[in-house]
Each structure stands twice: as structure tokens, then as C-alpha cells.
Amino acid sequence: MSLKIKHLNGDTTFLLTFSPADHRPALNRYGHPPGTFSVLVDPWLSGPSSMWHPKFLLSKHTVPSCISNLSQIPEPNIVLVSQEKPDHCHEPTLRQLDPTSSLTNVLAIPAAAKKIRGMKHFHPSRVHALPAYSSKDEDSIVRFYIPPLTYGGTSGEATIAYIPAKMDVSGLHNAIGITYRPPTAAPFLSQYSPPLSTCSNFSFPNPQQYRLNNMPPTPPETPIQRPRTLSVSTNPSTISTASSTSPAMSQTSSASTARSTTHSLHAHSPSFHSPSFHTHTHTHSTSSTNSNHHPRPAKTLSVIYSPHGLTYSPYLSHYATTHLVPQAALPLTTLIHGFDRVENPWYMGGNVNAGLPGGVEIAKNLMARCWIGAHDEDKENSGVSVLKIRMRKYGLNEVRELVRREWSGGGGGECEVRALDCGEELVMRS
């Protein structure tokens, strides 16, 4: 399986594409290979970004985005908005998305979800507020059920969690956790079986098929208690949820926040590799053998996206021990976090970006295999909010050196540090 990360602008707009295998058959009508789960993060392509009033803050890109319109990329499964601030929640860019799409749903922090609903561009059933993560509430994890690639294969799952800082005056500091466990095909059917589904819409899982093709018991063990599930149909006016005490889902009721969805996909045989990095010119991978009777469950890919930073303890440490560990999602596949540290006076909110000091703590504790810089564009900023701002910029080599020192003697492998140019892609395989 693989994770492709493409940097769409010079700041913090990324397209994340999770795939169960490296080579795919024909694309579906949405431009996705089977089993793929894609997330568009904080889209802002062009035009100014103004908060409250241009005299307070006005920002402009200094690096042109690699695309001029979101129609130039395949429709994403999820549009993820991590802030209500306009450089993350940019209305002109969001309006480029097709409001009639039966594939794309918007997941946003509560303040951003309210703002996006107020645009009246998307049907309200397509915009969902992310609940704050709590290990005591299964419904605080948004889950996406991905059907097996063929009958007899195992289902996959993607999860999204919102981890905010408490008592954060600026409202900037949070993290979004994403995990992806791929679906598989039955080894003896993978080359001959037709796809489990030929459409690519979100729909409620068939209870009998879910029971037959549920995720493998190890690792990790699948709990009997199932979380509440969201159904998003191709009719944008229909949303329902269900609770169940067994894999057979029972009843449905209306809801306003996302919980779980089914993504129907084409079939393809999975391949399994040891973790590796791939960037345009170099790939290293080692295949392993499938079971004679059942496909071996693949390791879970994991991403932490925190452009402004979030204190590792207690927030991310709690998420790691209560969610990433049970999901077998460590070491962390990728950390997306800024390098530069930005400070405002306390009466203007204090810290803006945690930068290198905060990022290296997260990367080290979660044993990140890769750290990609974000939100470090030298934008053209004006307004009273930036008059007293202080910035400490860190060069890529400086970041790599500090990471190397932190990792030395730890026995936890290496962390690749990258600053992706606009339009550059990084592919990570496992």
C-alpha cells in the first residue's frame, strides 16, 4: 500500500491519496483506483485571504499554486478544513468544488463547518463538524468503511480524528489524525474476480457483507461493539446513522456530524511491502508472501496534520496511546507540521506556529518516518495583526540536523525530513 502526498500550493494545501497497492487497474468514473481514499487538505489556490478586515490581516501567495482550479484534480473523498481562518477555509477556492458531487464530503472543525454551511454552496448534508477526540467516546472518531476488493477479501477502514488544544486563546493549535488500513482481495480470486462494486459512492454498508468481510481480528483485534455509523447516499438530502452491538448494523436515524461511511470500490490484488520512501527517482521495497488461505492484513498508515502545532503531551500522547496503538498505526507514517516558529505578543494570541521545537517533539515520540514542512510560505502579509509578529525561520538542513541529533542512539530508525515544492509529490510505501 502507499500514501501519495502532493503539495498543491506553497503553503499548506495538500492532496493525500491512500492506496492499497502500487499498481492499479482501470480508474472508476471519479478518477480513483479501487480501494483509494483521498483527502484534500485546507484548499487555498489563489486570490487574497483576509481575516475580519483587510486592515487587520491580508495575506497573498508569493508562490503560484500548481493548479488553477480544483477541477484539475480527481474529486476527493474528503475535503478537510482544519481552521476557520481564511488561509485554511478559503471561500473562493471551496466554491470551485462541485456542490452536486455524490462523492465528496466536507469535514471541518466546528467553527469552519458553520462558516462553510453559511456559504450555502454545499448541501448541508455534505458538510460535517468534526467532534473533539475523546477516548471515552467512540463517536468522536470519524470512520470510513472500505469494502473488500473482492469477495473473500478483508475490508479496510479509514479514520479521522480532531485533537484540539484546550484554553487556546488564538484557536490555532490543533491536530488532525488520519489512519488508513487498506482493503484486500482474496488471493485465489484477485486475478479473476470482478470488483465487489463498480460504483464509487458513499453508502451504508450491507450488514451481511460487512459481517462476512469484516476486518481481520489481528492486528489489532476488532471490537464486537461497533461505533455509530453515518450513511451518506448519492441523494444529497439523505443522511442517517446507526448503532449496533454486533457487526450486523440495525437501525438508522438522522445526524449532523460524520461518523462512518462506506466507499464502494473496484477490485485489485494487494501487494505487501516493507516501509520505504519513493520520490520520483528512487524506490526501495521488499515484497512479502500472502497466506495460503487468507490475505495477510496490511499495516495501518497514519498521518498527523498540524500546521500550527500542538503540544505532544497531553494531547497527541493521549491520541497515540488510545487510538494509534490499538490501530497498529505506529510508527507514524507522516507528520505534516511547520518548520518556522512564529510569535505574536500575548495580547494578540501569543504563539502562532510552534515550528521546529514543537514538531521535533511530535516526530520523535511518534517515531515518524517522514516529516513534511507546512505553512512556511513567505506570504505577502499586511495589517495590524502582523505589525509586532516575530519569526524564527529554520532552514531544511537545520531541521534535518536537529532531527538527526534527536534520533541518534534512539534505535528508532530514521526520520526523512522534506520541504515539498509547489506541485511536488512524495510517495511512501509500506
What are its keywords?
430 residues; alpha/beta; eight-stranded mixed beta sheet; globular
Structural class: alpha/beta
User: Averaging pLDDT over every residue, what do you get?
Assistant: 76
Biggest sheet record: 9 strands, mixed
Cα shape: globular
Q: What's the β-strand tally?
A: 25
Measure the end-to-end span.
6 Å
Order the strands across the largest sheet as they lie in space: 12-15-9-10-11-17-18-21-24
Give helix % range. 10-25%
Q: How many DSSP helices?
A: 6
- List segments where confidence is low: pLDDT < 50 over at least 5 consecutive residues: 198-295
| Beta strand % | 25-35%
- Return Rg in Å: 21 Å
Detailed description of the structure:
- This protein is an alpha/beta fold.
- Helices cover 13% and strands 26% of the residues.
- The protein contains 6 helices and 25 strands.
- The strands form 5 sheets. Strands 12-15-9-10-11-17-18-21-24 form a 9-stranded mixed β-sheet, covered by helices on one side. An 8-stranded mixed β-sheet has the order 8-7-6-3-2-1-25-16. The protein has a 3-stranded antiparallel β-sheet with strand order 4-5-22, with no helix packed on it.
- Strand 17, helix 4 and strand 18 form a beta-alpha-beta unit.
- The protein is globular and about 65 Å long.
- The protein starts with a strand and ends with a strand.
In summary, what is this structure?
The protein is built from six helices and 25 strands.
